[in-house]
């Protein structure tokens, strides 16, 4: 029996909370929950721990380091429970997780700056033909000497370790690991031309999977028959792969909670669930208006004898709220409109508010009223659009491109390549 704390998408550095407020409202209650949990524990960070790249000296980087360091210290006093982190999207985590490497099991290795020697080795390998000639003619063994020196430097740094060795690992490549007698598959977001290599790991029938990235059926995506296609060079994983996982798979990347095996929509994912096979955990905090109306938190999964219960724990996340304000702008004068929203907004003093207004329903006087209102409430966000004009534009585009819409993806791709791509080229790329 064990408890799995699954933390999806923290996005440290997104500017919705101050660092002190984030720690007090989000991090501190999470640590309290972990401290109070009895029995075996595993903690996973399911990708996108950071929101974007920051310098090593930036306060966001330092906060990210401090959070993991404190969690590692909690682990030390609670049976050294494992903490595992997978890398998320390149545009978010990128290389940021390297700043956390010193906290991993062999952290001292990552504190040693061997970049110059590594660069020399890489240069010789890139010029392998020239090096092979000098090795043959002059018995030049400098490459082997450089590699031995590099390895010995790292071995010496490990032997000199004097600090704590934490049970913390970072995975930037798909990895199988045995934890608590079960095989765990950790799959960071996969950037490749196909899913051949990572798919093999699923057919080893792991017991659990922690994944970051796209999965078929999660949201609308570009897909052709049986071929997993690439969006921004990132693989969309076939949902069928996760049927090979013996117990469950939890995924990060999509910020709404949704189950895929079986399918359970977001609105029904806030209660206790039993024995789901595959689901997205959402995100720990709301980060934009795209999260409006969604509850945020993490999963506390209790596993015992082949059965598991998923407890969703809601965090004290910032609120993002959207109001459709078109009707009020049509029927109320500016003073009544002001009083109406003063009263309405008083219940959401700490929330991010956006008003959506459709100009197609507003006459000239009402549009002037909108400008006056925006001047009185400059701190609100506004989405002003014209649904009638949008519909007319969409209809025009569809009419202008009617022939394109009736063509298959294969025909369209070859046509748009202006002769650069043949039918044989297409068939070779999409072998399946």
Task: Please tell me about this protein's structure.
β6 (182-187), α7 and β7 (208-212) form a beta-alpha-beta unit. The chain folds into four domains: 2-105 and 165-314, Metallo-dependent phosphatases (Purple Acid Phosphatase, chain A, domain 2, 4-Layer Sandwich), CATH 3.60.21; 115-159; 320-389, no CATH class; 401-432, no CATH class. With 432 residues, it is α/β, with parallel strands linked by helices. The relative contact order is 0.10. It has 14 helices and 20 strands. The chain has a seven-stranded mixed beta sheet with strand order 4-3-2-1-16-17-14, covered by helices on one side. Residues 220-232 have low confidence and may be disordered.
Topology (SSEs and partners):
Blueprint: E1 2-7, H1 19-36, E2 40-45, H2 59-77, E3 83-86, H3 107-111, H4 115-126, H5 128-138, H6 142-159, E4 168-171, E5 175-179, E6 182-187, H7 196-202, E7 208-212, E8 214-215, E9 230-231, E10 234-237, E11 248-252, E12 258-261, E13 263-264, E14 273-274, E15 278-280, E16 297-304, E17 307-314, E18 320-324, H8 326-331, H9 334-345, E19 352-358, H10 364-376, E20 381-385, H11 387-400, H12 402-405, H13 409-416, H14 423-429
Parallel strand pairs: 1-2, 2-3, 3-4, 6-7, 7-11, 8-10, 11-15, 18-19, 19-20
Antiparallel strand pairs: 1-16, 5-6, 9-10, 12-13, 12-15, 14-17, 16-17
